[in-house]
Amino acid sequence: MLNIYKLSIFSTVAGIGSFNQAAKELYLSQSAISQHIATLEKQLGTLLFKRQQRGVALTPAGETLLKYARQILWLTQAAESALTNIENIQKGALHLGATPSASIYLLPDWINNFHKIYPSIKISLDTNITSHLIRRIKNQSLELAIMEGEIKPDSALNIIPLKDTELLVIIPPNHAWSKLDSISVRSLGEMPFIARQTNSNTRIWIDRFLAEYDIIPNITLEFDNPENIKHAVIHKMGISILPACTVQKELANNQLIGLPLKEGILKRLLKCVWLTEKPLSAIGRAFLDTLSKDFPVLTKEILSQQKRPFNNTFAVYDRENFK
C-alpha cells in the first residue's frame, strides 16, 4: 500500500522540481528525500523522475502518480480539516503571507481578533512582494496570503476579491499643492517621486498607470515598504502614491496630505489567495471565518471548497492507464 507521507514528499518534489529545494521546504536532508523517492520507485517498479542538470522532471509514470497523489492528499487533508475541532486544539500553527501594505496596516488587527478567540494558535507572517508569496503558496509553505498585487488567472490558485483599496497622492504639509482639493495625473511628473522597488507589483502597476498618461515619474528614491516612503515624504524628499489605509494616522495628525486624482479614484483590489489543490486546514478555515463578517464572500468560498472532492476529485481516471 502506498504510504501517504511518501506521497506527500513526492508531491512536494514534483511541485518544486528539485530534491534540494524540497528538502529545504520539508526540513529534511536531501539524502532522506532521495531515499523516500527511491522507495516509492522500487515499490511501483518504475522511475518517477528524470534527473536533469537542473532539478528533476516527472516521467509519464510520475505524472500519472501525481494526479492520484494529489487526490489522496486532498481527501486526507479534507477529512482531517472537517473533523478537527479547532477549539480543542492546544497547539497549532498558521502560516500567512501578505504584501507590505496589508501586512502592516490590516493583518495586525485581523490576527489580534483571531488570537482573542484562539490564543493557543501560533501565527507566522511573511511580508513580501506578490511573486514571492505566490511561489510560497504553490510550494505549500504558506497556506493563505493577503495581497493587492495583480495576479494572472491561475487554476492552481483560489483568488478571492475582498475589497477595493483607494490610493492617494501623498505630499507633505506646506507643499505647493497643499491648498488643492485634488491633483491631475499630468502634474505628477513635475515633482521628485518616491517609489517602491522595481520588482514590486505596486511599482509595476503605478508605472503602467502613469504611462497611460505619457507620464515618466522623476524617481529620486526607492524603498521596499510604505513606512520608509511615508517618512521620506514627511521630510519633504518628494511625493508618492500610497494606499489610503497606510496613511490614516499621518493624515489625522496633519503630518501628510492625501490628494485624490482629478481623473477619478485610483484603486486596487485586495485579494485573499490560497492553493486550489489543497483543502484549507481547520485553522485556516477558522481564520477566514473571523474575516467573513467583513468579507461575506469568504463564507461562500469556504463552503464551495469543502464540496470540491465531490465535484472533480475523481475526474482524472483514465481508462488508457488500465489497458
Brief account:
The protein contains 13 helices and 11 strands.
How helix-rich are the residues, as a percent range?
A: 40-55%
Domain module count: 3
Q: Could you give me the name of the CATH homologous superfamily of the largest domain?
A: Periplasmic binding protein-like II
Q: Which fold name fills CATH's third level, the topology of the largest domain?
A: D-Maltodextrin-Binding Protein, domain 2
The span between the termini is 22 Å
- Strand elements, count: 11
Number of helices: 13
**So, CATH architecture of the largest domain?**
3-Layer(aba) Sandwich
Shape: elongated
**Structural class label:** alpha/beta
Unreliable spans: 309-323
One letter per element, helices H and strands E, the order comes to: HHHEEHEHHEHEEEHEHEHEEHHH
Main sheet characteristics: 7 strands, mixed
How large, in whole angstroms, is the Cα Rg?
24 Å
CATH class of the largest domain: Alpha Beta
Strand content bin: 15-25%
Mean pLDDT: 88
